[in-house]
Specification:
196 residues, alpha/beta, 7 helices
Length: 196
């Protein structure tokens, strides 16, 4: 009634009404199949443990943070944009959910504070120097053996010519470049997934 329309694979008939009805544009999937696959916004949720304290960096209007709060013990949604945080606070609420204005390149959280850190489609919006600051901050606030969920477009998947996509993307990676960047940042225990 007053939240996002959530896709339920056990009840889906393939009508795609959930996609059209959702005011937050959450369900997205294949239009060319009778029974489409829908995966958006479930990847991190399925890997968060009950009891986790989660940070969602660059949370935008807060839907991902809200979804994670349905499982985690506490979720902090952080975004540099005042208007996004204002809208998130106006749309989503919960005893275990808070939205804050802040910069992922310099955060005020204690070291080793979060069990999981999520940052979806953020890294490509930063220049190379800021990408290094950003990943250092994520590592600093993440507990040892914590989970980092990071997504960024592959430059060669987004554009066959390997061109940077969009006016707001500063530096995109190929798969190998991303792996090299993470290893240079001392992140070694990696699981790599793709979408498309």
């Amino acid at each position: 009634e007053d939240g996002p329309v959530i896709y339920n694979s056990r009840k889906c008939m393939g009508c795609r009404y959930c996609m059209l009805a959702c005011p937050f544009h959450v369900p997205t999937f294949e239009w060319d199949k009778a029974l489409p696959l829908i995966k958006k916004c479930t990847f991190c949720f399925d890997r968060i443990d009950k009891g986790d304290k989660v940070l969602d960096v660059a949370c935008g209007r807060g839907f991902g943070s809200f979804l994670l709060s349905k499982k985690a013990s506490h979720v902090t949604g952080l975004d540099i944009d005042f208007q996004s945080i204002k809208e998130a606070k106006g749309i989503f609420s919960g005893d275990n959910l808070v939205f804050l204005i802040g910069d992922g390149r310099k955060m005020d959280f204690p070291d080793n504070y979060f069990d999981a850190v999520v940052s979806i489609e953020t890294l490509e919006h930063l220049n190379e120097g800021d990408q290094n600051k950003f990943i250092s901050e994520l590592k600093k606030v993440l507990k040892p053996n914590g989970k980092l969920f990071l997504s960024t477009p592959d430059r060669y998947v987004a554009s066959k010519q390997g061109m940077v996509y969009g006016d707001f993307h500063e530096k995109e990676f190929t798969k190998d470049e991303l792996l090299d960047f993470l290893r240079k940042s001392n992140i070694f225990d990696l699981e790599l997934y793709g979408q498309g």
